[in-house]
């Protein structure tokens, strides 16, 4: 991976033109947090999940690595109509290993249309383009129970067309591609706490789960004027998750019907790991609908994001989620409040499991942003996570716990 990163950086720096100007920018966050109260989750831990796909969470001790991160972006003009961009990100939750979040080439087709090919953020959420740029929004983080999917980037192509309609600016884009995330740590978190992504056969081996979104095809529309900004997104993809599994073979040496030995089997005859098979719970179509926006007035800004995700899986899973927030507009101090809510609804009776609500939780947020300087802000935030998914005699898919978190962050751009 490090060799690949060096090659990508070299490509951008040379950009087919040794005289090209390199534009460098970046951003980062130093975040410390601690769970100040809460109940144990099904694993017995008292914790607060802040990032589902990067498996970042806080416990009852101060920790500054879970959300601290730094990013470096470089871009250069290959020609008067073509630009190359690369962005490297290192996160404390990933042991500060650099990762390529963006690496794409933009080609200006006309004055109002652009083709982008390569690796970019998947335009799912209202804040997708700058979801990790803490300085760009008032809170320390967007709510984890809304922005919780494993895939946030994709490799593919995006066609963007922009125009003006009276006093409205309009951006319309279509995109397509695929993405695979390997060794996803969050799947270990889910399975240890009763999550439902179990292999159809065999015993799951921790640290080996992969998720692929293939055949991604979508549409994104953004409109804005001087006080209102709206973004709508729709896409479909095929979801597949696999993992290494092991089997326990019972050996009856004396044929008395009682096993004499149990042998653990993790590999195929050729020595390769045994991968899990497909089932209606691990291989299915997914669709995403999102609508988000902001309304800016003299003294207040209101923000919202609504997502509706459906799985064509064995459960017929549906995930309605939303977030609403209000921010007081002040040049230096910006107090804010927010509420996010997420649910999982089962619409198919899978093997007699039943239908209905299977997961529900909300996060209440109170915070204060202090703009230290024109490129840095200090934030103080209190979050209360409430698990509302207890549906006795249902099996509780929430596998979370009530918890309260206090965190402090310094966000900056350069």
Protein model, in words:
- The chain is mainly beta and 414 residues long.
- Helices cover 5% and strands 56% of the residues.
- It contains two helices and 21 strands.
- The strands form three sheets. A 16-stranded antiparallel beta barrel has the order 1-4-5-6-7-8-9-11-12-15-16-17-18-19-20-21.
SSE inventory with pairings:
Blueprint: H1 2-14, E1 22-38, E2 48-51, E3 56-58, E4 69-79, E5 82-91, E6 98-110, E7 113-121, E8 153-165, E9 168-181, H2 185-192, E10 203-204, E11 210-224, E12 228-242, E13 245-251, E14 261-265, E15 283-296, E16 300-311, E17 317-328, E18 333-346, E19 356-373, E20 376-387, E21 403-413
| Low-pLDDT ranges | 1-6
* Backbone shape: globular
Q: How many helices in DSSP terms? A: 2
Radius of gyration, rounded? 23 Å
Terminal CA distance reads 26 Å
With strands numbered from the N-terminus, the spatial order across the biggest sheet is: 1-4-5-6-7-8-9-11-12-15-16-17-18-19-20-21
Helix content: under 10%
Order of helices and strands, N to C?
HEEEEEEEEEHEEEEEEEEEEEE
């Amino acid at each position: 991976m490090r060799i690949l990163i060096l090659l990508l950086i070299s490509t951008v720096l040379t950009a087919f033109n040794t005289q090209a100007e390199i534009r460098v920018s970046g951003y980062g966050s130093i975040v410390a947090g601690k769970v100040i109260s809460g109940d144990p989750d099904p694993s017995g831990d008292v914790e607060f999940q802040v990032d589902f796909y990067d498996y970042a969470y806080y416990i009852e001790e101060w920790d500054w690595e879970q959300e601290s991160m730094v990013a470096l972006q470089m871009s250069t003009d290959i020609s008067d109509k073509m630009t190359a961009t690369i962005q490297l990100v290192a996160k404390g939750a990933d042991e500060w290993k650099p990762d390529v979040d963006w690496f794409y080439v933009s080609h200006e087709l006309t004055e109002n249309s652009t083709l982008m090919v390569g690796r970019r953020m998947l335009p799912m959420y209202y804040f997708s383009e700058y979801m990790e740029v803490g300085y760009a929004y008032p809170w320390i983080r967007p709510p984890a129970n809304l922005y919780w999917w494993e895939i946030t980037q994709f490799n593919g192509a995006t066609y963007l067309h922009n125009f003006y309609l009276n006093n409205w600016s309009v951006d319309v884009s279509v995109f397509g591609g695929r993405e695979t995330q390997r060794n996803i740590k969050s799947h270990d978190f889910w399975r240890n706490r009763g999550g439902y992504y179990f292999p159809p056969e065999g015993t799951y081996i921790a640290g080996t789960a992969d998720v692929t979104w293939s055949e991604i095809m979508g549409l994104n529309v953004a409109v804005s004027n001087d006080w209102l900004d709206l973004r709508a997104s729709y896409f479909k993809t095929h979801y597949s998750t696999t993992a290494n599994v092991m089997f326990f073979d019972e050996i009856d040496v004396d044929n008395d019907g009682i096993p004499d030995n149990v042998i653990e089997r993790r590999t195929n005859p050729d020595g390769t790991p045994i991968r899990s098979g497909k089932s209606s719970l691990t291989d299915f179509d997914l669709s995403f609908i999102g609508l988000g926006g902001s309304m800016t007035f003299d003294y207040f800004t209101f923000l919202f994001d609504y997502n509706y995700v459906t799985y064509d899986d064995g459960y017929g899973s549906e995930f309605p989620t939303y977030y609403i927030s209000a921010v007081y507009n002040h040049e230096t101090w910006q107090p804010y409040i927010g509420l996010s809510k997420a649910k999982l609804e089962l619409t198919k009776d899978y093997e007699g499991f039943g239908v209905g609500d299977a997961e529900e939780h909300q996060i209440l947020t109170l915070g204060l942003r202090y703009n230290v300087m024109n490129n840095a802000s200090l934030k103080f935030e209190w979050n209360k996570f409430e698990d509302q998914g207890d549906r006795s005699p249902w099996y509780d898919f929430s596998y979370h716990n009530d918890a309260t978190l206090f965190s402090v962050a310094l966000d900056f751009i350069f």
